[in-house]
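#dry-run=false #mode=assembly
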Amino acid sequence: MPLRIERRPRPSRAMSWASPLIAAALTAAVAMILFALDGREPVSTLWIFLTTPLADLYGFGELLLKAAPLILIGVGLAIGFRAGVWNIGAEGQLVLGVIFGGWLALEFGGAGPWVMPAMLLAGGIGGALWAAVPALLRTRFNASEILTSLMLNYCAQLWLAYLVFGPWRDPAGFNFPQSAPLHPDALLPIVIENTRANIEIVIAVAAALVAWIFIERTHLGFQLRVTGAAPGAARYAGFPVRRAVWIGMLTGGFAAGVAGVGEIAGPLGQIFPTASAGYGYAAIIVAFLGRLHPAGIVPAGLLLALLAIAGDYAQMMLGMPSSIGGLFQGTLLFFLLAADVLTTWRIRRVEDAPLPATEAA
Amino acid sequence: MAGPEAGARTTRDDGPILPPPLRLELRGIRKVYPAVVANDGVDLAVAPGEIHAIVGENGAGKSTLMKVIYGMARPDAGEMLWNGREVRPRTPAEAQRMGVGMVFQHFALFDTLTVAENIALALPGRPKLEPLSRRIAEVAGRYGLPVDPRRRIGSMSVGERQRVEIIRALLQDPGLLIMDEPTSVLTPQAVESLFVTLRRLAADGCSILYISHKLEEVRALCSKATILRAGRVTGVCDPRAETAASMARMMIGADLKALRPAARQAPGAPLLVIDRLSAPSPDPFGTALHEVSLTVRAGEIVGVAGVSGNGQAELMDALSGERTSPPGTIRLDGRDLARMGPRARRRLGLSSAPEDRLGRSAAPDLPLHENALLTARAAQTTAWGFLRRAKIRAAARRIVEEFGVRAGGLDAPAGSLSGGNLQKFVIGREILNAPRALVVTQPTWGVDVGAALTIRQALAELRDRGAAVVVISEELDELMEISDRIAVIAGGRLTPAIPRAQCDRDAIGLAMSGRLDTPAAEQETADAAAH
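#status=ok
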């Protein structure tokens, strides 16, 4: 009695929301198998793995600190993804935010309280400009934005490395590749006392709300959704695909740029060549795990942040490599994509050999 | 059997006992798809050398039945006998080895390869091109299918491509040839020559299953017909002894209603003017438009006939605004629209509805109410750029109610509607926007008879309210029914539109093949030839 995969009459909404939960459950199962193979008690190890980071207020603050850029970038990317614009270059756009915001901080740090908001704006503009390159190449020459935006990540990374190894190197920094510490005026205010959680989490949640209203309740958001869901219908209706590409790329780039400023003006406090912890890539997982919907992206960002922090703790508490957090992030995306197949397809048992039965009849 | 009339009709059937074994017999075929029972206990008997019609509306189960015979779908119940032996083809290759050939409605040919190369790809083994070309020429000559084996498919007309498909099937010496809606892409003359070919084939002993919803053609060609409705056989008859109306009744289960005659007024002033419009095609195998001119007055429907691929898609793109045109070539009530996009044109009163519902005139994954918003006027559905959701839902509800759209609520995705219901929704949406001019292509393509009637009626009423309507269609019958004037598009050129009363099917057919400049000039030669 073989199993057969067949198309559903229509995509299942319930399955679309259940699939992240299925993916999370399967990831947990894989985690427990890995722990067991390592000679540990699987259930309690998983419990320790997931709850240790949240054991105190400081840990909770770390979670918000890490989740903020993931949510912010994820929301920005999701607007593009809904419009069928595949911006894979958030990592590079984040680095441009570091460069633009960092320049402002190094140049004007201490000039007044306007510096911090100006840095956020400048970082956003930097990210958007970086995203404008693939947008231009796509609208002008029909070059795939997936490739161009991805390749620009490396360019941005090298640009930042040049700056930090060269002109921006701290003269008092013992020749380490890092800038001078940013002036306190250039740092983001802390929102929860005795933690490192700063105002970026508030910005990220606000961005999610604005994005929700924009995509679901405005005509422009509707146009983007049509462009993503049925490009032919968008052309017919007169919703320019080029404009969708520009809006999709620029919002993603702006959000990533702001998140970049959030790193140097937040936990880092100075500029390193490795300013990003891979948020630009992880945010892609966040966006899809959150069903490209702002209301889903917030919990998805928190979950991914938890996995990342848990990886760090695993190194300290369990003696496992910290990259185990990244491994679970990848596993989660893998199972999510697999489970997503079930929103448009379903598995059915087929009764084979119905023909002989009718022969007998 | 539905009702006494149907029962009486089937008594003309040859009866259960036939002397020679049947070429093909199906007993109680049942095929269930996730959402629908496509075939429900279908019986079919085809004698050797018989041209047998399978008649039914869209969605009646014709295609599924053919897939079962051709090994593309496995039935859930029932049996199939080939020359009296039970068979169960599991793939098209098995069906072909058995002796079943099929010519699909949508051809499967490579544009960049030659005829011989295309055919070689489909044959078992690796036939050498030289001897194969000779065999092609031989079969082509025997059945009156002139085709040059060395020509590339990309340069061929649709009718020629169909010949290639038929030759490809014939080279496998089939005992049964399935033809799926073969005439939907042909000119009337090409239909005649196809019929000559099919009759010759049948005389040589090859059975033919002829799938169609065009009843006049079935009456002209076939000696037997099996009629399907909603997956069941509703009649078996000799079409030559039936009228189109009596078969239509078996097909739709009710009498075919005629279009209500309209209270016609004389057409008004020129409204939509296309003035020497030339446009290249974006598609390398498309057709460029050459100096297309057409004037449509307020209160008239102008039909544009033609075989598909002769510039219809390009003309639609130019009129809808999806591609802009040189200044001055498209005017609405004197205003130049040629450089405007679709939204600006719609705002000024020029709307359009292309035939591709799933992904062009509607977004299949979005709910119905958002599909109503697709072409709605911004002034009524938005405020400061925000959606006025109550107004949008009300607009969608109005479309659904006024045009009898059957849907699972306004939140149902557009793709979940049947073809007919979605097309009613699309046409209704455009009509309720009260356009001054409306351009539609193939408005009843893939739509059931009832929905087709609703749509044609709605177009006629729009015309009667003083709108200029252009219907671009490959269905000449449809154009003859609803148009006031008819023009023909061939090779990207448009003939002048002539009043329907003066239209001659043969003349239009010749113009469709691109051989003469205007149907009017043509008509004279046709008349002269007749005398």
